[in-house]
Structure formats: structure tokens, C-alpha cells
């Protein structure tokens, strides 16, 4: 595992809810990242751990390899990859995301 993959792994496993996104929760830099933050807020997650991939090109590329998922944002809950904003939206609409996030 490369240094960048180890760094990503530490972030993912060290935080309950992690969103790798473009921008920050306060200032999303793309519509998909903004939608992902809104979905998390609607699920009651007010302070998710966010990682701005625009700040670090290594993480920006490395996160795509880490989950074998080509797009950003990417949501991780309890160390597990959940998906991007479209999957988050589908899970939110079905109630599945709220259940996942409320489970301790």
C-alpha cells in the first residue's frame, strides 16, 4: 500500500462518516459535492469529516483507486465505501442511508 493509500485508509477508518469532496462542507466546489453535503445534513449528520480533494492531487487520484470508484464525492461510513452523490440520493430516498447513519 502506497503512502497516499495508507493516509486515505487512516482517514476512512479513523472517522465514522467521511466525505471526500471538492471543496468543504461550508463551500462545496461542485454541485455533486454540494448535494452530498445536503443529503448528509438531511440525515442529521451536522459535522461530517470532509476531505477537500482539490487541496491534494495525490488524494484526488488516490481515492479513486482506493475504492475503485472513478468519481468524487465519495462517502464512507464506519470504514466502508457507500458511494457517490447519486447512490447517496437513492439511499436517502429509500430511507436506507438514514438507517445506516443512525446505527451506532
Could you outline the blueprint of secondary structure elements for this entry?
Layout: H1 3-14, E1 17-21, H2 31-42, E2 49-52, H3 57-66, E3 74-77, E4 80-83, H4 85-94, H5 96-102
Parallel strand pairs: 1-2
Antiparallel strand pairs: 1-3, 3-4
CATH architecture: 3-Layer(aba) Sandwich
Q: What is the helix/strand order?
A: HEHEHEEHH
The shape is: globular
- Assign the CATH class: Alpha Beta
Provide the number of structural domains: 1
- Report the major sheet: 4 strands, mixed
Distance between the termini: 29 Å
> Gyration radius, to the nearest Å?
13 Å
Assembly classification: single chain
Number of helices: 5
Beta content: 15-25%
Structural class: alpha+beta
Q: Helix fraction?
A: 40-55%
Instruction: Please tell me the overall pLDDT.
Output: 95
Low-confidence stretches: none
Strand order of the largest sheet: 2-1-3-4
CATH topology: Glutaredoxin
User: Total number of β-strand segments?
Assistant: 4
